[in-house]
Amino acid sequence: MPTIKAAPFDFPFERDSIALIVIDMQRDFVEPGGFGATLGNDVSLLQAIIPTVAALIGGFREAGLPVIHTRECHRPDLSDCPPAKRLRGNPSLRIGDEGPMGRILIADAPGADIIPELAPASGEWVIDKPGKGAFYATGLQEYLDRRGIRQLVFAGVTTEVCVQTTMREANDRGYDGLLATDATESYFPAFKQAAIEMITAQGGIVGWAAPVAAVLEALDA
Ligand code: C5J
Question: What keyword terms does UniProt attach to this protein (predicted)?
Fold first, then answer.
């Protein structure tokens, strides 16, 4: 069986059942004036991975394999945003408040859009998710199961929040998950490193990790 060179051991690559899931590469996290910036974060750290995420998406598209995108965002009436989420963060600019890119983290605001460099292609599924994990309150599991997808390559932001949460949800549901280490980023480099170690420790307790070049090599083989 073909493999992707990965940690903690080679990933058994199944071309017929693999998909790429790109988590929350939205203006709200990556550009100044969005949700990430309201929390005091340096968004330029996240901008640095745009070319590697684009290369990974390009590899999946060229191989004719599914690409799924997610957006963390809420309904305009905030009915899917619990107070436990809304009332934390920056008290002067909360989820739903008017910011420089429209209402913060609201589905129809410009800030919730996926950045133009990584715009979904026609036919690619874009999941709007109210939580950090992409399985919570979405039809993701049914979507994957209908298509026979059992393996997921993960990219996007932020590594230790939405990416890791979704990887853990996938792992508990029986999917094999591989994190593309240079196509994910955190506002906190130490948290990214820790997340990779947590995922791959103990014989891959959450999954695998590999650089984009290793994934592309397997896609090309
Ligand atoms: C965060 C995310 N960090 N997409 N969301 O709040 O990781």
Answer: Hydrolase
